[in-house]
Amino acid sequence: MTQKQTILGRISQLAKANINAVLDRSEDPEKMLDQLVRDYTNSIAEAEEAVAQTIANVRMGEADLRSDQEAAQEWGRKAGAASRKAEEMRAAGDAAGADKFDNLAKVALGRQIGHENDANAARPAIEQQNATVEQLKSGLTAMKSKLQDLKSRRGTLVARARSVEAQGTVQDAMRSIDVMDPTSELSRFDDRIRREEALVQGRAEAQATSLEDQFEELESGDDDAEIEARLAALKQQG
């Protein structure tokens, strides 16, 4: 198995990976996300290098293919020219000259066939390399998309984890100063204040009761004076 095939297989595996399932199986999703980000980043770098090398090989192969095709055509033209020259010399009665150019035509045809064979042999390999390039490019696109998703998911997960941690800290702090807890310092302080407030209220009510009694005595004295005055008036009428 070649290096490119190994990279291609890893790209395919990572691109098809079910991230949710991986995270669900992990005891520490944040750490797992960091590892996945590193794996994808490294694999993308390797895959990009593999794509570059494969494209370079394809372009060189395509250049060689065009060269072989052009050479085959050129040797074909030379073979045709030599063959025509041989026929002209044979028609002119120069058999030796005609044989010479026929032999040159045969050499040119041999060269033509050689370049055609090279081109035919190279064409399938170039087509396969082009297919590999497309697979690598497709896998790279999928992996880059997954990498962006991973980075986004990591940010969201970290924010949620920190929010939960902050909420837990606040709740712990609230429990430590729970005013409803009779054993807490704040609860005892609240009880002391309530007792002092009740004592002040009791003293105020006690003072108010004393004043009301005095006014009642005053009002009672006024009634007696009124009774005496009316009694005197009755006596005068009689």
Spatial extent as radius of gyration: 54 Å
Shape type: rod-shaped
CATH class of the largest domain, named Mainly Alpha
- Ends distance: 146 Å
Helix content bin: over 70%
Q: What ranges have pLDDT less than 50 throughout 5 or more consecutive residues?
A: none
Q: What is the N-to-C order of secondary-structure elements (H for helix, E for strand)? A: HHHHH
Could you explain how this protein is built, in words?
By secondary structure, the chain is mostly helical. It has two domains: 3-176, Helix Hairpins (Orthogonal Bundle); 181-238. The protein is 92% helix and 0% strand. The protein contains five helices and no strands. The chain has helices at residues 3-15, 19-25, 29-91, 95-176, 185-237. Helix 1 crosses helix 3, helix 1 packs parallel to helix 4 (95-176) and helix 3 (29-91) packs antiparallel against helix 4. The longest helix has 82 residues, at 95-176. It is rod-shaped, with a radius of gyration of 54 Å. The protein starts with a helix and ends with a helix.
